[in-house]
Hints:
By secondary structure, the chain is α/β, with parallel strands linked by helices. The chain has 16 helices and 17 strands. The chain has helices spanning 27-41, 103-107, 118-135, 152-158, 215-222, 231-236, 247-252, 289-300, 323-336, 349-361, 376-383, 399-405, 416-421, 442-456, 459-471, 476-498; strands at 3-4, 7-8, 11-15, 45-51, 63-73, 82-90, 97-101, 142-146, 171-176, 225-228, 257-259, 309-314, 339-344, 366-369, 386-389, 409-413, 435-437. It is elongated. The two termini are 24 Å apart.
Amino acid sequence: MKKNNGRKKLKILFVATEAVPFAKAGGLGDVVYSLSLALKKLGQDVRIIIPRYATIDPEKCKMETKIKEMKVPTDQPGDDPFLVCNVKKCSESEVPTYFLENQEYYEQRANVYGYGDDHIRWALLCRGVLEFLRSFHWKPDIIVASDWQTGLVPNYLKTTYANDPVLSKIATIFAIHNLQYQGMCDFKFVQETERDSGKEPIPDFFNPRLAKLNWMLRGIIYSDIITTVSPTYSQEITTPEYGENLEKIFGENREKLYGILNGIDYGKNSPENSSNIANDYNSKAIEKRKENKIYLQKKFGLEQNPNVFLVGMVSRLTEQKGFDLIEKIVDPIFKNLPLQLVCLGDGESRYKEMISKASEKFPDKIKYFFEFDVDLPRIIFGGADAFLMPSKFEPCGLTQMQAMRHGCIPIARKTGGLADTISDYDPKKNKGDGFVFQDYDPMDLFIAIIKAQTCFSFSKEWKQMVKRAMKKDFSWKKSALEYLKVFWQAIDKKNKVNQ
């Protein structure tokens, strides 16, 4: 058995609703795959299980059946309280990936999310995974449940399967990627009498009460360890401002709450080997970025001038991303400063209208593209001087890491993962790799932009800052090593309980 710092190789199972390359609806699919792969490269036995949706072709994925006609209890009263599932495995994926099959709830559904019976679909996933493990020869030491859709995994383990001789020994990690979504309804508007305490028994799959449970709350209560996607965010969610009405329960469980930064794929996010940008470069040849800047300006129809301060944005157009701050300062910024802005993203119509009107008012300074384009983000990262990210809150954020990897200096608010990844520039000490403002206030953002634009005129110091940003380590390996420490804490905690 391979040893890892004197300890055995861990068996780790990620349970999720999506994982690339098989299913992706958001960032979760990338994180599950990338973290799993990084842990595997560190010598761990890592596997993934997700549902098999209609878009996942078993022939193309070369699947083999591992368990056939598995009966998953629904707890519904009656003579046949089961749903029948198969479990298949892709034999060619880099990380061994299993698929829970069910004709009605997965195989006939093309989308990952968005159905009225999603609570039944995810309950089937949570319960189906545990039934699979009961009968399968491979048993994990750790189960990582991802976001609210898998929040019942630790709940079932601590209640329904509490006396199971095998499953009761498995430690659970509840990984929170998006705290805003906690179940099938918005719990801010649920009546007090209907609120889920997390203590009542899980109802059967077809009981309407199942859709009223706060699955996020239950994942927090019943898991052995809770993780969030940045250290600062793990502290912020214990406060009313960021806690989404769960700050009290986070405070009660503070001893098992950890924040670990997500990473980025250095293969896909390297300016040294990119098919998207005009000219490859690295931290030792940052002067080559000028050609990429000219290319970006030309692509968006801006004046091609390497000496003009060019700011980029790649973002969803929502209030969370700080667009209400931008709306309040767009006129004075572009009236008084010699800078350009390119914006890429889709989102709320009010912010699209705001940007398009600002572009009409300042046609030589502001350009935008509201449709998704797979190539444009890296073109912006590789050509813009700075990257604007004035988020109201940001659990982790990946685009600031991708921008810094390309030498694009962030201008961002000090919150969540932004606070953990960006060091504010200090001109006296010539240290730092970005421009960070504290309060969610338009004037604070205004000042941060002015500071960045002023610093840009000092080319020597700016180049040094670009090099520092490019050399920062945001690799998944670094994140995976932190996760391993937390996994062992969960196992040690579980062993003490079982003694």
